[in-house]
Amino acid sequence: MAVKIYSTPTCPYCKMVQEYLKEKDVEFEYIDVAADKKAANEMIEKSGQMGVPVIEIDGKVIVGFNKEEIEKALSQQGNV
Amino acid sequence: MYDLIIIGAGPAGLTAAIYAARKKLNTLVLAKDVGGQAALSWEVENYLGYNLISGAELVMKFREHVEKFGVDFKEGTEATSLKPVDSPAKTDYSFEVSAGDEMFQAKTVIVASGKTPRRLNVPGEKEFAGKGIAYCATCDAPLFQGKDVAVVGGGNAALDAAFQLTKIANKIYLVNVNKGLDGDEVTREKVKKSDKVEILNNTETVEIKGEKFVSAIVVKGKEEREIPVQGIFVEIGSVPAVEFLRGLVELNESNEIKVSNRNETSVPGIFAAGDCTNVLEKQIIIAAGEGAKAALSAYSYLVRRK
C-alpha cells in the first residue's frame, strides 16, 4: 500500500493527519508542496483544488483530514 | 435515540463530551472537523497545563482524551438541520438532527458549532473555493509561490496573511473595504513597507473569475477593475456557524446563540456552548468551561424529565 500526504510545514491539519497515521502504524510518504513545486502541481492536478492536506491512499485521493474517508480507504486495502 | 447529541468538536464540544460520558449519557458527537478554530491556532500559551503548545497538538490531546471515554463520534459530518420532533404535550421535546442524508435523534442537543470564516458572498466564490480561494492562509499560502494573489480584508488576519505572502508570492493586492487598514501597528508597518504589496483601500470585491481555477478578482474602488490573480485569501473575520438552526433558537444581533448562565437556549432541551454563543470572550479555555457547563445542564434537564 502506498500512502502519500501532500502538506505544507505550517498546516495544522497536515500535522494531525500525520499523527493519526503514525498512531495507526501506517507508513506514509510526506511531501512538502511548499518546497517541491512539481509535487504541488501534481497534487493540484490529482485533487482538482489547491488546499492541503491531500492524502492519497493507493490512488484514492482525499482532500482534508477526513478521518472517516481515510479509514474507509485504509480498510479497503485490508490494512486496518 | 441518544440522550445527547453534541454538534461540533472544538474545545466546547469535546469537553461537553467528556462530562456527558462521565454522567453515562448515551452521547453522539457530530462534527465537520475536530478541533475547530483551535486547531488552526499556531501557538497556544494560555491553556492551563501547557506553557506552549500548537493548536493542532492540543486538539490531538483533547481527542485522545475523549476517545478513552468511548463516545460515539461522527466526523466529516456537518449538521444541516436541527428541529424538534412533534410531541403532543409540547412540553416534552426530542430533537432530530440531519447531516446530509443521515438523521439522528436525541432527547437533548448541545450546539457547539463554533465559528466559520466569513464569506464574501460574491459571484464565483462558491465555484472557486479551494480552487484558488483560500480561507486558511497558514495552510495554503505556500502553494502560491511566485504567483500574483489578492488578500481580502483589513484586520490583523488579513495583514498577517499579506505579510506571510510577501515571502512567497510575486505580488499581493490587499483589498480593503474600509478607508484605512485596521489591526496592529507593527503588522501594518511591515505590510506597508513591502514593495510587493499594493494596498487598495475603499475597495469592494465584486466578483471572482476563472475557468478551472481562479484567474482574476474584480474589485470596485472609484471604478471597477479586473486584476489578474491566481490566488485569493479571504480574511474578513468569522461568523457563528448557526445556519442550521436559524429560526429555531434565539440569536443576538451578531447572530450568536443567546444562552443563559446555565447554557440554556430559548428552546428547552437545546443547550449551546463556546464561540457560537453570546459568551463574553472567545477563548479555548472559556469554550471548554462552557462545554462542561452545558453538559451538566443537559444532564440535570434529563434527570428532571424522567
Q: State the separation between the terminal residues of chain A, measured CA to CA.
A: 12 Å
- For CATH, the homologous superfamily of chain A is named as Glutaredoxin
Please give the number of β-strands of chain B: 17
Helix content of chain B: 10-25%
Name of the CATH first level of chain A: Alpha Beta
Largest sheet of chain B, described in full?
A: 7 strands, mixed
Instruction: Give the total of domains of chain A.
Output: 1
C-alpha end-to-end distance of chain B: 15 Å
Radius of gyration of chain A: 12 Å
Radius of gyration of chain B: 21 Å
Q: How many strands appear in the DSSP assignment of chain A? A: 4
Task: Give a short synopsis of this structure.
The complex is a heterodimer of chains A (80) and B (306). By secondary structure, chain A is an alpha+beta fold. Chain A contains three helices and four strands, in the order βαβαββα.
List its salient traits.
heterodimer; A: 80 residues; alpha+beta; Glutaredoxin; four-stranded mixed β-sheet; 3 helices; B: 306 residues; alpha/beta; FAD/NAD(P)-binding domain; 2 domains; seven-stranded mixed β-sheet; five-stranded parallel β-sheet; 7 helices; 17 strands; 25% helix; 29% strand; elongated
